[in-house]
Amino acid sequence: MGDEASPVATAVAETTDRRMPVRSDTAVLPGLKPLVLQALSAPEHAAGTASIDRLRLAPVPLVPEVRLVMAEDAIVLWARLEAEAGHVLPPPFWASAWTGGQGLARYILDHPDTVAGCHVLDVASGSGLVAIAAAIAGAAGVTANDIDPYSIAAINANAHANGVELTLSSSDLLDGDVDGVDVVLAGDALYHPSVAARMLPFLARVVAKGARVLVGDPDRGHLAHDWLERVATYEVPMSGAPEDAQLHLTSVLKPRRDKVDDRRGRATRLRRESHHCRTRE
To answer: pLDDT digits over 211-254, tens only?
Structure first.
């Protein structure tokens, strides 16, 4: 028994998951696959017990219903993966439970009607935390989107670990529009001015087309305060991403209808708001 791989580890070890339209083969990402398999084969490691350059599977502090593969030390893990790859990699945002995402996931699980029966897009998904929460809350379908292939592999592993089915997307969506989506979620997606400069117009277009938008953010200084209004605030748990050490509160926000230019989508929005998401086929 001790040498047998767990069912989750076996599922992740497969090179192709038929449920996932985007291939998440960790074997093509140097150094990642053995770390993921090790974390999934030995779950519930407490923080501080794993090697500093490793991953561990553990409950999310503010959302203990969800378990994620997280870095013991994201900076050291980053250095390890870059050494394995032999070139510069983007920061492993997928290896931490970011504060804004924790707040948004908590809100969704506390208010499942927000997504129940809906077609949901989680943009800049990172670890997949928010997408997984939406799936648990009863969404009709959830797409987790991130342009980092390491993130896509991590989301795939985390979805298996939590027993949920997600659709994975690695496309850059921010310059376009999204069709066939009822709810768009953005957990801690305003972490840098250049990202916020693309994300906020994208979210405005989504709202104009009639979809609901929810944003999770600890106010890193890039929020559109005249456009978004708070619907909930949570105390930040002690553990999270290293960059969040000085943050004490995180909020969930939604667009103010009176501040969004919705002339293009007024009729569409009114039609959608007159029916619950569960009526969609």
So the answer is: 999 999 988 877 877 889 999 999 977 655 656 566 678 999 99
CA 227, 232, 233, 235 dihedral sign is negative
Strand partners, 57: 69
Q: What is the helix (H) or strand (E) element at residue 232, kind and residue range?
A: strand 228-235
CA of residue 165 relative to chain centroid, distance: 14
CA 264 to chain centre: 29
Does the pTM surpass 0.85? The reply is no
Antiparallel, parallel or unpaired: β 249-255 and 228-235: antiparallel
List the structure tokens of 222.
Answer: 């890039």
Q: What is the dihedral of CA 48, 50, 55, 60, to 10 degrees?
A: -40
pLDDT in tens, 172-219: 999 988 889 999 999 999 888 898 899 999 999 999 999 999 999 988
Which token pair is 102? Answer: 């924790």
